[in-house]
Design goal:
123 residues, Rossmann fold, five-stranded parallel sheet
């Protein structure tokens, strides 16, 4: 399973990546790079355009706004990729748009597997 992991806190993204060990984890930017601009705007490739089966949006804190580290979830939604939100999702702009929600301490990998839609694009 190819999972794009995005989030509003670096520690939460790192924790999600550990929970998804054994799956192909992709990111919109390198771990220590600024969240914006994304790799696509810096001459790299876009994981959503390259093909992912699901987006894991992890929120380490509450926010009523979309934060820079979460922009990949917007791209995933626009591309009709299922989005699983984990962590502090209540009251977020994503709350009613995601395919599934995982509470803090929940099983992210299982939730992602349950909604993942394999990318069937032929390159």
């Amino acid at each position: 399973m190819r999972v794009l992991v995005v989030g509003n806190e670096r520690w939460a993204v790192a924790q999600a990546e550990r929970a998804l060990r054994g799956h192909e984890v992709r990111r919109c930017h390198e771990p220590e790079a600024p969240a914006f601009p994304c790799a696509k705007f810096c001459g790299g490739s876009c994981p959503v355009e390259d093909g992912v089966d699901v987006v894991a949006l992890v929120r380490g804190r509450h926010s009523s706004e979309v934060l820079p580290g979460e922009l990949g979830a917007v791209c995933g939604l626009r591309a009709d990729v299922p989005v699983v939100a984990a962590g502090m999702v209540e009251g977020s702009p994503f709350a009613d748009l995601v395919t599934a929600t995982v509470p803090p301490g929940g099983r992210l990998a299982e939730a992602c597997q349950s909604v993942a839609v394999p990318d069937v694009r032929v390159g």
